[in-house]
Design brief:
The complex is a heterodimer of chains A (289) and B (799). Chain A is α+β, with helices and mostly antiparallel strands and 289 residues long. Chain A folds into three domains: 7-52, 2-Layer Sandwich (Uridine Diphospho-n-acetylenolpyruvylglucosamine Reductase, domain 2), CATH 3.30.43.10; 62-172, Uridine Diphospho-n-acetylenolpyruvylglucosamine Reductase, domain 3 (2-Layer Sandwich), CATH 3.30.465; 177-284, CO dehydrogenase flavoprotein, C-terminal domain (Enolase-like, domain 1). Helix content of chain A is 33%, strand content 27%. In chain A, helix 10 (227-233) packs antiparallel against helix 11 and helix 11 (240-247) runs antiparallel to helix 12. The longest helix of chain A is centred in the C-terminal third of the chain and has 21 residues, at 264-284. Chain B has 799 residues and is α+β, with helices and mostly antiparallel strands. In chain B, strand 16 and strand 17 form a beta hairpin. Chain B starts with 13 loop residues before the first helix and ends with a helix. The chains are: A alpha+beta (289), B alpha+beta (799). The A-B interface holds A 1-2, 4-5, 42-43, 102, 185, 187-190, 260-263, 266, 269-270, 273 and B 115-116, 119-120, 123, 275-277, 667-668, 670, 707-708, 712, 720-721, 723-731, 733-734, 790-792, 795-796, 799.
Chain lengths: 289, 799
């Protein structure tokens, strides 16, 4: 379990990092290292250069700004899990963070690293999709924002261009009557999501669903929004029957993975069950008026 | 006399382990050490047409490269100590020569100045493979197809029938024959510390020292001496801290011999530390049996006979005990029951996989699973309560020693007692009522029971491949400190603590005055090792008897010093006292004594002379006198030490009952253990804390087998579960709370009355969990599910 030889640069500014990335097309950014280092140890990847961005100031923060929640890319899972601010204004993020790996992983792994890695069974993509987040990428050419639904392109592939670094995650502060939940079946060995469903629902005065965002991870090559479920929920009074009917669309159009632990059939079934449960839990989480 | 024995004494090993101050093989650094990396087969079955090492030789830091052909005639084969009639034993070279027979089979060894250079050079060795069809399915392999070892003509390593009684008559006498096929899936032991070897050869002294993470330092020394061709008295094996073994280090591995041999070639220290991937590929696996059990039963549940036809997946080669492990299954097929006739027909089969061998329980978990699983199947078939079927067939407490139709004599037991206690503790009756209510509410609750017996204290030498005794030397140093040298080689079990408890009580000294030393063949007399739940029952007894021998001598010296007959001395709290003096002390005339535990001050001029007139001497004072040797009887050797080799007359047979309650998620098939109760009887208990720890760990591994773990090779023989991202080792967060209790039935086999508990959990718990799951699904007509019970299996059965 020894990686191939690589160069290592620890930078102190984002600009330095961007310069190195621009000069070295195959360089990899080292954030928390919890996906990158194992892959290197198995020699699945052999990057010639690691650019360690762990010492750059101001990439690790959680703040409210302009009606948005802004989370720095280097914020650890644990910092999100433990954030009182997020527990109050966007509890889906701490809930999702708490389900990642184990304490050691949560102490080192970062939200930005996880998103940029885009593991098909990673937890964050589901939550980010359900929250309609925007991801801020920065390069030598400046900054751009990418919508969450455009960010996940394929297996381990994101919309980030070579030379770009994911800098920040922005989420519009939920308002009105909203409810969230993240429900996940843990793989017994890896702890990754066999399926993970993030639900973000908003309601009218009654139990009528005004809008629904459902993020699905673990099922296919990349995380996706279950648009079939969302439209089946929107404008509908939610009860067991309507939730069940909507959840049946959880894997519409998705090419489900099969593996030793869960066949494609079973995974589709799990996605449906966990979607149902996530929606029910999200409803329960709505503060009583 | 039992100030320590029976007490929850905290492990004296723990502070160094917790603080990270312990020394494992990889923590030992020698100047100039070279590092070894292995090229391992990427195919399960392939002809090796050539190995091109040119590029690797040129790589920076590479010192030497060895392939199979270089050393085929120089290092002896990996040994197999199992002796079975007509056993086929393949020639297991330390590096593959003509064919690679499993994924991970070592093909070449690279030696370099650091471990990084060694690893990099692995990618520069080009092996010309010619892939052959892989033999993966063990049942198919038994019946023909591709042959792994061509000269044998087939893949069957041996066939063996064992058992006593007229099985055919027993089956005829039955009202009903109940039968069930069961798979005992292949498991990986996964010790927390992988294997590791450091070898250092001194060319001048012609001495080789091998540090290895092993459970058997002395047996390893003997075998390595034979493999490498170095005199055994020029070879020292040191086992530093060992981070778990579970049987996987009860072996002699190719890498251990290779490192020793390479060090001799190069005259330098060489080190290899196994990676986790290598650990899953090339450290022995366990279990891997597929069998069908048939049981003849009377309508009242009485068993007339049991037959088990089984195919054992041995892997490509025999490691130390590979073929013998399934025979242990045959020994334990009587379980906790009176079964008049038992027969096991086992076929050991070669496959293109890593060898199977002893993994915690080693053959007994399979037997217990077969018996305890089928007891539930019988109960279902006869519409009887599973508890009653068990009770019906238990021997009574007054029937011990109890002879089984597998040829064993169970030493002592009270199976009803343990069962009753477990039922009380779990509230079995009310659990059944709750289960009914839950079912009415649409919930799937299952209750599983397992009443196991296992075989420990391995064992009488007649029944073992290479000695079943254990040794101890006990020495009291001039300063009064007690040194215990044990031939057992604990690797996490805590015998440094429990043996010190035995010694401190027997000598009447402070626990902190006792040091237990093990795992160094240069210091410790020959021993057998730690496995088969034997260390305390056999090794602990050796310590006890060595102390008794030592005390005989001490009392002679004491009598001489106090000028009296040895018979007029009493020994208590570490002091020899003249009996009349003891009486006098009651009236307040006794003299001050050096407090126990502090010992004499150490300087030789503090020898307590003259002793004329003294009526009381501590054993630690006597030790000093024995070393100074001015005041010992003329016919007595100086010094105060004794060595004893204890040969047990029988095995011991611990037992117990476990109760498991599960709840199954009807929609997803997920199993949750909601209650777990274990009542174990391991005879007398030296340290309840250690026993609890062993039981907890054992149950965790048993739950791992029942629900999570499986080594999976695909149809090409590729290892699918090659790392811990896929191989589902159980985690603390997945475990329920364990309620544990004990009954205590002393063993008559050894004077300590102990039986052993290292493997009990792994043996007793697996069927309890599976029985609970099957019980939960009984409404769906489910009578059996093979392990590991992944949620998808349940979903498929009930959707």
């Amino acid at each position: 379990m020894i990686p191939a030889e690589f160069n290592y640069a620890r930078v102190s500014t984002l600009d330095e990092a961007l310069t190195l990335l621009a000069q070295n097309e195959d360089a990899k950014i080292l954030a928390g290292g919890h996906s990158l280092i194992p892959a290197m140890k198995f020699r699945l990847i052999q990057p010639p250069l690691l650019v360690d961005i762990g010492r750059i100031k101001d990439l690790s923060y959680i703040r409210e700004e302009g009606g948005q929640i802004r989370v720095g890319a280097m914020t650890t899972h644990y910092q999100i899990e433990a954030s009182d601010l997020l527990k109050e204004i966007c509890p889906l993020l701490p809930e999702c963070a708490g389900s990642i790996g184990d304490m050691q992983v949560r102490n080192k792994g970062t939200i930005g690293g996880s998103l940029a890695h885009s593991d098909p069974a990673g937890d964050w993509p589901a939550a980010i999709l359900a929250l309609n987040a925007e991801l801020v990428a920065v390069s030598k050419n400046g900054e751009r924002t990418i919508k969450a639904e455009d960010f996940f392109v394929d297996l381990l592939t994101t919309a980030l261009e070579p030379g770009e670094i994911l800098r920040e995650i922005r989420i519009n502060k939920p308002n009105g009557r909203t409810g969230h939940a993240y429900m996940k079946m843990h793989h017994p060995a890896s702890g990754f999501a066999v399926v993970g469903i993030a639900a973000n629902l908003s309601f009218n005065g009654n139990n009528k669903c005004k809008a629904a965002n459902i993020g699905v991870t673990g099922v296919a090559a990349k995380a996706y929004r279950a648009t079939g479920v969302e439209s089946a929920l929107t404008g509908v009074n939610l009860d067991d029957a309507s939730i069940g009917a909507a959840a049946a669309h959880a894997t519409d159009g998705a090419d489900a993975n099969g593996d030793l632990f869960a066949s494609a059939d079973y995974r589709r079934h799990l996605a449906e069950v966990y979607t149902k449960r996530a929606i029910a839990a999200a409803m329960k989480s709505v503060p009583s008026a | 006399m039992t100030k320590y024995v029976g007490q929850r004494v905290k492990r004296t090993e723990d502070p160094r382990l917790i603080k990270g101050l312990a020394h494992y093989v990889d923590d030992i650094g020698l100047p100039g050490t070279l590092h070894v990396a292995f090229v391992r087969s990427m195919y399960a079955h392939a002809k090796i047409n050539g190995i091109d090492t040119t590029e690797a030789f040129k790589a920076p830091g590479v010192v030497a490269v060895y392939s199979g052909k270089d050393i085929a005639t120089k290092v002896g084969p990996v040994p197999c100590a199992a002796a079975l009639p007509d056993l086929k034993v393949p020639d297991y070279r330390v590096l593959a020569t003509n064919k690679a027979l499993f994924v991970g089979h070592p093909i070449a060894a690279i030696v370099a100045t650091d471990k990084y250079a060694a690893r990099d050079a692995v990618d520069l060795i080009f092996v010309d493979y010619e892939e052959l069809p892989a033999v993966v399915d063990v049942e198919a392999a038994a019946n023909g197809g591709t042959i792994i070892h061509e000269s044998f003509g087939d893949n069957v390593a041996y066939k063996l029938t064992s058992g006593e009684g007229d099985i055919d008559a027993a089956m005829k006498a039955a009202d009903k024959i109940v039968s069930q096929k069961m798979v005992h899936q292949r498991l990986a032991p996964i010790a927390m510390e992988p294997r590791g070897v450091l070898a250092r050869y001194f060319p001048g002294e012609e001495e080789l020292t091998v540090w290895s993470s092993t459970q058997i330092p002395h047996l390893l020394r003997t075998q390595l001496a034979l493999m490498i061709g170095i005199p055994e008295n020029k070879l020292r094996v040191i086992t530093p801290e060992v981070g778990g073994g579970f049987g996987s280090k009860l072996n002699v591995y190719a890498e251990e011999a290779l490192l020793g041999w390479i060090s001799i070639q190069l005259g330098k220290p060489v080190k290899w530390i196994e990676s986790r991937r290598e650990n899953v590929q090339a450290t022995i696996h366990g279990r891997a049996q597929v069998g069908t059990v048939e049981v003849g039963v009377k309508n009242d549940g009485a068993i007339t006979g049991l037959r088990y036809n089984v195919v054992a997946d041995l892997g490509a080669y025999h490691q130390l005990l590979t073929p013998a492990i399934p025979t242990l299954t045959g020994l334990m097929l009587s379980g906790a029951y009176k079964i008049p006739a038992i027969q096991m027909n086992v076929t050991g089969v070669f496959t293109n996989k890593m060898s199977t061998d002893a993994y915690r329980g080693a053959g007994r978990p399979e037997a217990t699973y077969v018996v305890e699983r089928v007891m539930d199947v019988i109960a279902r078939e006869l519409n009887l309560d599973p508890i009653e079927v068990r009770r019906k067939n238990f021997p009574k407490a007054d029937e011990f020693p109890f002879h089984t139709a597998t040829g064993l004599d169970y030493d002592s037991g009270d199976y009803d007692g343990a069962l009753n206690k477990a039922l009380d503790l779990s509230g079995y009756q009310s659990l059944r009522e709750e289960q009914k209510k839950a079912r009415d509410n649409g919930k799937l609750i299952g209750i599983g029971v397992s009443s196991y017996v296992e075989i420990c204290a391995l064992g009488p030498s007649q029944a073992m491949p290479a000695g079943g005794w254990e040794s101890a030397t006990v020495r009291i140093e001039p300063t009064g400190k007690v040194t215990v040298l044990t031939g057992a080689s604990p690797h996490g079990q805590g015998q440094e603590t429990s043996f010190a408890q035995i010694a401190a009580d027997e000598l009447g000294v402070d626990l902190n005055d006792v040091t237990v030393i093990h795992g160094d063949t240069g210091i410790v007399q020959y021993g057998i090792g730690t496995f088969g739940s034997r260390a305390t029952a056999v090794g602990g007894t050796a310590v006890l008897i060595a102390i008794q021998k030592l005390k005989e001598k001490a009392s002679k010296i004491a009598a001489h010093m106090m000028q009296c007959e040895a018979s007029s001395l009493s020994f208590e709290d570490g002091c020899y006292t003249k009996k009349e003096a003891a009486a006098a002390s009651v009236t307040g005339k006794s003299e001050p004594v050096v407090p126990v535990g502090e010992g004499p001050a150490g300087a030789l001029n503090d020898v307590p002379t003259p002793t004329n007139g003294r009526h009381k001497l501590t054993i630690q004072e006597i030790a000093l006198a024995a070393h100074v040797a001015k005041e010992i009887p003329p016919d007595t050797e100086p010094g105060l030490s004794a060595t004893y080799f204890f040969e047990p007359k029988n095995f011991t047979f611990p037992f117990g009952t476990h109760v498991c309650v599960v709840e199954i998620d009807k929609e997803t098939g997920e199993t949750k253990i909601v209650k777990y109760v274990a009542v174990d009887d391991c005879g007398k208990v030296i340290n309840p804390l250690l026993v609890d720890g062993q039981v907890h760990g054992g149950i965790v591994q048993a739950i791992g087998q029942a629900l999570y773990e499986e080594v999976v090779y695909d149809e090409q023989g590729q290892l699918v579960t090659g790392e811990l991202m896929d191989y589902a080792l159980p985690k603390a967060s997945q475990m329920p709370w364990f309620e544990t209790d004990r009954t205590e039935t002393p063993s008559p086999v050894n004077p300590l009355g102990v039986k052993g508990v290292g493997e009990a959990g792994t043996i007793g718990a697996t069927p309890a969990v599976v029985n609970a799951v099957v019980d939960a699904l009984s409404a769906y007509g489910v009578t059996h599910i093979d392990m590991p019970i992944r949620p998808e299996k349940i979903w498929k059965l009930i959707r």
